[in-house]
Design goal:
One of its GO terms (molecular function) is transferase activity. By secondary structure, the protein is an alpha/beta fold. Helix content is 30%, strand content 22%.
Length: 290
């Protein structure tokens, strides 16, 4: 492994966590940093993660993207299709990063998943809308697609296959949909342009994330929710708390953030803990990002 690798993350904070969680654990960006740092240390003691939080709702942006390896768009109570000016600005910013800075990775969680899909795949028939069946709350099992498992496993040639499914926490009422599909059963790898890949699905929601190898990863679920935050969220929504695989997914996100940066992660612990033994699209953006 490369000696002492530091990942620098720009946390684009899109909301404030619920009061008890904020008082104890800070912003969504702080929570993600804590969980990802713990995951990185389990993979290798040589990986260090630094972060800076930007309140994009109030118009805060990284002064220079050259200072960061990745941007992370957090969860939010807002909807990505709302007409708030900060949401439109965030969408333009994400598109600008994608088109102008291919070495900077993009990760989106929940609202961030919706926003990234809306920003980068809208011209491909992908949109975000309220789920007709309402909320998905609590722990659900995400069935990972074979295409995602195969492509993600290639990040570590020495690894075995990643799991067929993974349990994550959910709190969302919106969904990403492929407009060319008549029903959720029609969703497939062919619904996305290469090299984009559908991450997986649950019984409630067909699009649980998208993946562009080495560049973009989004997840509908929350790997960052620990036991305390689960309890606070479940108290609000009245759902039951069950065990999840958040730690495994957090390590997978770290693996993604390290991928194709000249420093492959060779530790196989991430895969054991999981129960294992074409050209990019180039949409235009009017926002210039330095």
């Amino acid at each position: 492994m490369c000696p002492s690798r530091c990942l620098r993350l720009a946390m684009l904070n899109a909301d404030t966590s619920i009061p008890n969680t904020y008082a104890t654990m800070g912003t969504f960006g702080d929570i993600l940093h804590h969980v990802l740092s713990a995951a990185a240390s389990r993979i290798s003691k040589d990986i260090r993660i630094e972060h800076e939080v930007f309140d994009v709702v109030r118009g805060e942006w990284p002064p220079s993207i050259a200072n960061f390896d990745a941007i992370i768009i957090t969860a939010s109570s807002a909807a990505s299709y709302d007409h708030d000016s900060w949401i439109r600005a965030l969408q333009e910013y994400v598109l600008g990063i994608y088109t102008q800075h291919p070495d900077v990775k993009i990760f989106g969680s929940c609202f961030g998943h919706h926003l990234v899909c809306q920003a980068l795949l809208k011209d491909c028939g992908v949109l975000v809308e309220p789920h007709p069946n309402g909320w998905e709350v609590g722990v659900s099992r995400v069935h990972l697609t074979e295409a995602f498992r195969s492509r993600f496993a290639s990040l570590n040639p020495t690894s075995q296959k990643i799991p067929e499914s993974i349990r994550l926490q959910f709190v969302h009422a919106d969904q990403v949909v492929f407009t060319q599909c008549q029903t959720s059963s029609d969703f497939s790898q062919s619904s996305l342009p290469e090299p984009w890949t559908l991450v997986g699905s649950t019984e409630h929601c067909a699009v649980q994330g998208v993946y562009f190898p080495g560049r973009v990863l989004t997840l509908q679920g929350h790997f960052e929710f620990d036991k305390f935050e689960n309890q606070q969220t479940m108290r609000i929504f009245g759902a039951q708390d069950f065990p999840d695989d958040g730690d495994v997914m957090a390590e997978m996100v770290v693996q993604f953030l390290l991928s194709m940066r000249g420093c492959a992660v060779e530790d196989e612990g991430i895969w054991r803990r999981a129960g294992l033994g074409s050209e990019p699209l180039t949409p235009r953006s009017s926002m210039e990002i330095v």
